[in-house]
């Protein structure tokens, strides 16, 4: 199983087992940086335990950067214009956004059509 799929699987199952107040406290206030780190620690611990039970190992911990990377990748995969994603991420240039977050995981049929028409 691909490592990204493994993270998704264990993260989804872990989220189902914790309260819905992931970004805010139960009283609606934003969580503190320490609270967020503590939450990530608990999630990583639970994911590692679950993976071990399945005889698997996660190669790295879930971090806030993983959330940022996922957010950017999902936006780009959904077809959000590059300049808008650049703005949302606070990058100075679109090339920074492209170099870090744009991945070629699949090729669309329209891409193949363009290539065939040129050949």
Report on this structure.
The longest helix has 21 residues, at 33-53. The chain is 63% helix and 0% strand. The mean pLDDT is 76. The protein has helices at 3-16, 33-53, 64-77, 82-89, 94-101, 109-118. It has two domains: 1-60; 63-119, no CATH class. The two termini are 36 Å apart. The protein is mainly α. Helix 1 crosses helix 2 (33-53) and helix 4 (82-89) packs across helix 5.
How would the blueprint of this fold be written?
Layout: H1 3-16, H2 33-53, H3 64-77, H4 82-89, H5 94-101, H6 109-118
> Order of SSEs, N→C?
HHHHHH
Spatial separation of the terminal alpha carbons: 36 Å
DSSP strand tally: 0
How much of the sequence lies in strands comes to: under 5%
Q: Enumerate the spans where pLDDT stays under 50 for 5 or more consecutive residues.
A: none
Which structural class should the secondary elements be placed in?
Answer: mainly alpha
Q: Number of domains in the coordinates?
A: 2
Features:
single chain, 119 residues, 2 domains, mainly alpha, 6 helices, 63% helix
Short description:
The protein is mainly α and about 120 residues long. It folds into two domains: about 1-60; about 65-119, no CATH class.
């Amino acid at each position: 199983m691909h490592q990204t799929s493994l993270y998704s699987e264990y993260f989804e199952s872990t989220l189902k087992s914790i309260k819905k107040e992931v970004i805010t406290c139960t009283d609606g206030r934003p969580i503190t940086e320490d609270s967020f780190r503590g939450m990530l620690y608990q999630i990583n611990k639970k994911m590692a335990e679950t993976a071990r039970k399945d005889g698997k190992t996660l190669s790295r911990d879930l971090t806030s950067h993983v959330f940022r990377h996922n957010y950017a990748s999902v936006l780009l995969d959904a077809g959000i214009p590059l300049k808008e994603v650049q703005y949302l991420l606070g990058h100075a240039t679109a090339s920074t956004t492209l170099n870090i977050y744009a991945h070629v995981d699949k090729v669309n049929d329209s891409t193949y059509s363009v290539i065939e028409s040129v050949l």
